[in-house]
Write a structure and sequence with these properties.
The protein has 164 residues and is α+β, with helices and mostly antiparallel strands. Helices cover 27% and strands 21% of the residues. It has helices at 2-26, 94-97, 148-162, and strands at 37-43, 53-58, 63-66, 81-83, 109-110, 122-128, 133-138. The protein has a 7-stranded mixed beta sheet with strand order 4-3-2-1-6-7-5, with helices on one face. The chain starts with a helix and ends with a helix.
């Protein structure tokens, strides 16, 4: 009987070790945004003549800039993206990693502004991955409280990108 307890103990320990390492592997952040893309930037009001938008894209490995300066229209921005050379990707991946989960409960369109139009411009944000695609526009003075910290981060990263 002592051998049976010993055997049972080894099997139990082995099962716990395997299940713990499987859980740890499943919960790692590595690859979490592997197929995600974030398209973000600003667009000017309807009275703009010239470069009326600056839109960027970040994916699983690079940061890009739309070289045509077109304003985002519709639910998907089809920009002419060119990779930005000599940029530290790790400085910008935070935009994918820190996107508030609450935003995915928002419908496409303007955050916290039912009657808004593109007339006054604002921030453009589009998220895509293998399962979902969302597009939001954010006014400078109208956005949900949960978005405040991310908005500050986004504006900081946009300022950095615009200075390149």
């Amino acid at each position: 009987m002592p051998h049976l307890r010993h055997y049972f103990g080894i099997v139990l320990l082995l099962m716990l070790t395997i299940s713990c390492s499987s859980d740890d592997d499943a919960n790692t952040d590595e690859g979490e945004n592997q197929n995600a893309k974030l398209i973000f930037g600003w667009f000017a009001d309807d009275n703009c003549n010239g470069d009326c938008a600056t839109i960027y894209k970040i994916d699983s490995s690079s940061v890009y800039r739309d070289i045509d300066s077109n304003s985002p229209e519709g639910d998907v921005f089809l920009g002419n993206f060119q990779e930005i050379p000599n940029i530290n990707y790790q400085d910008f991946v935070v935009l994918l990693d820190e996107l508030p989960s609450e935003i995915f409960n928002e419908p496409n369109g303007y955050l916290d502004c039912v009657d808004c139009t593109d007339a006054l411009g604002g921030i453009y944000l589009e998220y895509q991955d293998d399962e979902v695609s969302h597009t939001w526009r954010i006014r400078n003075a109208q956005y949900p409280e949960y978005f405040a910290n991310y908005r500050s981060l986004l504006l900081e990263k946009l300022a950095t990108l615009n200075s390149l």
